[in-house]
Each structure stands twice: as structure tokens, then as C-alpha cells.
């Protein structure tokens, strides 16, 4: 058992928690408890245009009724902008202003990264063209041919990404003025002392960018575990519409039902428990056994 373990669940309040995000919440919570660690909740509302008013409160209320309580005060990214600005300042010449718009980047035909972001061709790397103003702030990634970023995911095993060809110089501050997810998440995980990140596999392609940013900022790299993403019968990721959870505060039967579905999706062979307390009492040791079986502790 590790001496210090700090984990977190970091939902974006773009709608209510759905069955897919519940899997990430449950996995991160079980992993923290199985390691005798702390579990934090952070509301990732940095993209204020996508945040839905009230969704943060609904997510927190639902987590409460599922028996998942943050071990420290919940933080909101929208209130932590000074931290992101200070980190961007520390990046010095690793960061540079970019004047390109979306169309110009797509027209360069370098394609899109696995997460849908356009791969940046490096147009503004050596300075803005005359007459161009800054639209976004980008991080300069290592030149093609430099060492790739490698990490070992506790479930998926060794992973490698070449940032120059797979993302290019990526955005830290967006053209709409908001700090980008990649910067905010790295700054927050470091500032909160997070040692272990457990989240959905849809974020695995962001991990190399985050590790590179950690290195440039001189902060530790946490361990990573990416859990499978829940899909519907058409193979599509669940959305706020298709995966809505029917759990109302105080409805323990529905809470246990939702948790059991998430735990079984994660591969925990649990019988139906008759209370929330019984669910967690069975799920935490079952997660520990799963880690041991998979050599993922
Ligand atoms: N806020 C992100 C989401 O809801 C998760 C970020 C993370 O876990 O790193 O998809």
C-alpha cells in the first residue's frame, strides 16, 4: 500500500452525471479507497461557454447520494484562473502567441489528433506574421525526431506518443479567452498534489500532452489508469441524453442499482447488495483483487 495517495474525480458540468461518467467516478473512488488514500472532487468548469448552470450542484448532490464525498473542499476551475495565468507565465519561451484561426489550421491538412483537435502546423512558432494579432497561446512541443513521450498506464500498459506529429504545438489559452483544459488540468493536479489519475479511456490521448506540460513546468507526473468507456449498442459514447441516471437523492435502491451497474462494467463480480454501505464494503476489496489479478496495483 502506498504511503501517500491522492486521487480525484474531475467532472465537467456540461450536464448531469451520466452512466459513463459514473464509471470514472466509481473507479477513481474505489482506487483511492483501496489504497487508503484521499479522494477529491474538482468541478472542471473552465470552459464557461459549455458549462450548464446548476449542473455542478446536481453532480455533487448525486455523488453525495451515492455515498461518495470529497475528502477536501470541492474546487471550481472557474475560480482558479490566477493559478493558470501564473503557470503560463512560468512557461516563458516554451509558450508563444499564435494568430491562426481554425480554418487556416485545418487547411494545412495535417489532419486531426485522436481527440478531434486539429494538428497545428507550427505556423506561428517563430513569431506572428506582420499584421497578425494573438488569438491563442500555444505550447511548443519537441521537434520531430525528439524522444517520444512514454508512460505506463496501469490498465492499458506501455503507451507512447510523438507530440510533433500527433498533436503539434497545442493550445494553452483559447481564442475565446478561456484557459484550455490541458493547462488547467495539469496545474490543478499538481497544485492539489494528485498522485493517481483514474479516468475514462477517451482521455488517454491527452495524457502525453499533459506529461510534457508537467515536465516543462517542473511538476511531478502522477500515475495513470484509464478505464473503458461505456458505449451504447451502436458503439457510441454515452451522452448526457442517452446515459442519464435515474437516481434521486434519498432513493437508496436506485443508488445501489446505478453503482452496481458501474462496478460490473468495471469487471467487479458483485452480488446485489442491500444497502449503499454493503455495496462499498464489497466493492473496495473487489477492486483491490482486480488490481492484483491485473498486476495494476
Ligand atoms: N473534465 C474532464 C471530463 O469531464 C475530465 C478530465 C480528467 O479527468 O482529466 O471529461
Label this structure with key terms.
297 residues; alpha/beta; single chain; 3-stranded antiparallel sheet; 10 strands; 5-stranded parallel sheet; Rossmann fold; binds glutamic acid
Write the layout of secondary structure elements.
Blueprint: E1 6-9, H1 19-34, E2 38-43, H2 55-65, E3 75-76, H3 81-90, E4 95-98, H4 102-107, E5 136-139, E6 149-153, E7 157-161, H5 163-166, E8 170-173, H6 181-191, E9 196-200, H7 204-217, E10 223-227, H8 252-265, H9 276-294
Parallel strand pairs: 1-2, 1-9, 2-3, 9-10
Antiparallel strand pairs: 4-5, 5-8, 6-7
Helix pairs in contact: 1-8, 1-9, 3-6, 6-7
Glutamic acid (GLU) binds at residues 10-12, 44, 185, 199, 203.
Each distinct ligand: glutamic acid
- Taken from the alpha-carbon principal axes, the silhouette is globular
**C-alpha termini separation:** 9 Å
What's the CATH C level of the domain at 6-78 and 193-199 and 220-294? Alpha Beta
Oligomer: single chain
How much helical structure, as a percent, in the residues?
A: 25-40%
Task: Predict the CATH topology of the domain at 6-78 and 193-199 and 220-294.
Answer: Rossmann fold
| Strand line-up in the sheet with most strands | 3-2-1-9-10
Mind summarizing the main beta sheet? 5 strands, parallel
The ordered H/E elements are EHEHEHEHEEEHEHEHEHH
What percentage of amino acids are in beta strands? 5-15%
**Second rung of CATH, namely the architecture of the domain at 6-78 and 193-199 and 220-294:** 3-Layer(aba) Sandwich
The CATH superfamily name of the domain at 6-78 and 193-199 and 220-294 is HUPs
- Given the structure, what is the number of helices? 9
Low-confidence stretches: none
Amino acid at each position: 500500500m502506498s504511503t501517500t495517495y491522492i486521487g480525484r474525480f474531475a467532472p465537467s458540468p456540461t450536464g448531469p452525471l451520466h452512466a459513463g461518467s459514473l464509471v470514472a467516478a466509481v473507479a477513481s473512488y474505489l482506487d483511492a479507497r483501496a489504497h487508503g488514500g484521499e479522494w477529491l472532487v474538482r468541478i472542471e468548469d473552465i470552459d464557461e461557454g459549455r458549462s450548464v448552470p446548476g449542473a455542478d450542484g446536481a453532480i455533487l448532490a448525486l455523488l453525495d447520494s451515492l455515498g461518495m464525498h470529497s475528502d477536501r473542499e470541492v474546487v471550481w476551475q472557474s475560480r482558479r484562473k490566477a493559478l493558470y495565468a501564473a503557470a503560463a507565465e512560468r512557461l516563458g519561451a516554451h509558450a508563444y502567441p499564435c494568430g491562426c484561426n481554425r480554418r487556416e489550421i485545418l487547411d494545412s491538412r495535417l489532419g486531426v489528433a485522436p481527440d478531434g483537435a486539429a494538428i497545428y502546423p507550427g505556423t506561428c512558432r517563430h513569431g506572428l506574421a506582420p499584421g497578425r494579432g494573438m488569438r491563442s497561446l500555444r505550447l511548443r512541443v519537441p521537434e520531430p525526431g525528439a524522444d517520444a513521450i512514454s508512460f505506463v498506464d496501469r490498465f492499458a500498459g506501455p503507451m507512447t506518443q510523438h507530440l510533433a506529429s500527433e498533436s503539434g504545438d497545442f493550445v494553452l489559452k483559447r481564442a475565446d479567452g478561456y484557459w484550455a483544459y490541458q493547462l488547467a488540468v495539469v496545474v490543478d493536479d499538481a497544485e492539489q498534489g494528485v498522485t493517481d489519475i483514474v479516468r475514462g479511456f477517451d482521455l488517454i490521448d491527452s495524457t502525453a500532452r499533459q506529461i510534457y506540460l508537467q515536465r516543462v513546468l517542473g511538476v511531478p507526473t502522477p500515475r495513470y489508469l484509464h478505464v473503458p468507456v461505456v458505449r451504447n449498442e451502436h458503439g457510441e459514447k454515452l451522452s448526457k441524453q442517452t446515459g442519464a441516471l435515474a437516481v434521486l437523492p434519498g432513493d437508496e435502491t436506485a443508488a445501489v442499482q446505478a453503482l452496481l451497474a458501474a462496478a460490473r462494467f468495471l469487471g467487479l463480480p458483485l452480488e446485489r447488495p442491500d444497502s449503499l454501505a454493503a455495496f462499498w464494503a464489497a466493492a473496495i476489496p473487489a477492486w483491490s483483487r482486480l488490481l492484483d489479478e491485473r498486476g495494476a496495483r
